Each structure stands twice: as structure tokens, then as C-alpha cells.
Amino acid sequence: MPLTTDQSSGPTASTYKRVMLKISGEALMGDQGFGLNPPTVQRIAEEVKSVHDMGVEICMVIGGGNIFRGLSGSAQGMERTTADYMGMLATVMNALAMQSALEELGVFTRVISAIPMDQVCEPYIRRRAVRHLEKKRVCIFAAGTGNPYFTTDTAATLRANEMSCEAIFMGKNGVDGVYDKDPMEHADAVRYDNVSYDDVLVKRLRVMDASAIALARDNNLPLIVFGLDEPGGFRGILAGEGTYTQVAG
Fold this sequence. Notes:
Layout: E1 18-23, H1 38-52, E2 57-62, H2 70-75, H3 80-104, E3 109-113, E4 122-123, H4 126-134, E5 138-142, H5 152-162, E6 168-172, E7 178-179, E8 191-192, E9 194-195, H6 197-202, H7 210-218, E10 223-227, H8 233-238, E11 244-247
Binding site for ATP: 22-25, 65, 69, 173, 179, 182
Enzyme class: transferase
Pfam family, one: AA_kinase
């Protein structure tokens, strides 16, 4: 397993060849309450570039909650399938924004959608996506799995397995790992250095939805949860620095 349990040693630049970075759509809002904040998108793109420059092949999945969230639409009376498809389209918008920011930095990027829309991005073809990664292009997987009732967490775990990623890096806002309860609401919340998949499920820890955790567990795919709002956090963990929680075993 690439990450050791001793966080003082940490992973080195050569530890990982290919990883999945999963971030929420809300991460792109910055201090706004809705939509995209260009400086925030730029900062995250710079984080991705810094890891790409280490020689790591990067897959990405970005949620759509900053534009539209299927579950909230369904809760307000919208038919669930329609609401979920609208959420998938929101992830495509976020992916295109991130692609633009990355390519401004000189990082070749491909947006790959589970719902065909040839004018704006590529359809998902596994072997083509693998080839993009081998050519050191960042691949941003959009539109979830292409099916309603599945979250972008599940999509990230599915694509990470299909692309043979060695870990999923979960970039969180406001927290630097997995806690036993919400640290934003409870001052006595305790952060885990390591936690098992089963404990995440049994204790209902806020990492990913249950389907995604089960899929990661069944394929022995570790999750690395870290604070996305800490400058240099993504690269820092790969370089053996920073704070994170490893979900495995």
C-alpha cells in the first residue's frame, strides 16, 4: 500500500504513479454562496499542476453542488431522475472550468463525460482515457457514472478503479482529515490518522457515501482525506508533509 501508517515518513514524489483527486463542487465557490470563483479555480489548478510536475498521472472528478445538487432538487419536489441528470450537467460545467484553468497553466487536459456531448468534451472510452494518462494529460471525468441515483463519490471510485489509480485523494473544505464528529460543530472532535472502511460505514463518518466506500473496500483502494483549502496541501502530502487521514483495510 503506497502510504505508510507512519505519517512522519510520508509518501515521496515517486511513491504514486497515478491518483484520483475528488473534490466537491462547493470547493470551487470560494467565499461565494454559489457558482464558480475564478481565483479559487485557479488556485486549485495550480495545486494540480504542482503534483503533475512531480510526474504523477492525475484523474479528477468534481462534484456539481455549487451549481445544482440532484438530491436537493428532488427534496423540493422535482422528479429524482431529472434532478440527478441536471446535477450531472453541472459537473460538466465545473470540469470545463477546471480544464480551462489547467490549460492556461500549460497542463494538457481532457474532459471526459459519461453522457456524450461531443461538441464540448469526449465520451468516456476507457482505453482512450488510459492513453491520455499515459501521455501525461490530466483527465477530468464528468457527468458522474451517467446514471441517476449515483453520486460523484461513487463515480470517482468507479473511475479510479477503471483507471488503475493507486489511491483516491479526497480534498475537503474546512477539515484536514476524517473526524469522529463534525469539527465545525464540536470542539472536542477527534481526528483519525487511520481508519478502516468498515469503521467509516459503521460509524457513519463523513467521507464518502456508503456505495463508494463499499466499492473502494471491495477493491482495496485506499482513500487519503486532506484539507483542500490549505495551500500546497495536495503536493505536500505526496512530498511527505501535511496532515491527512488514510482510509484502508
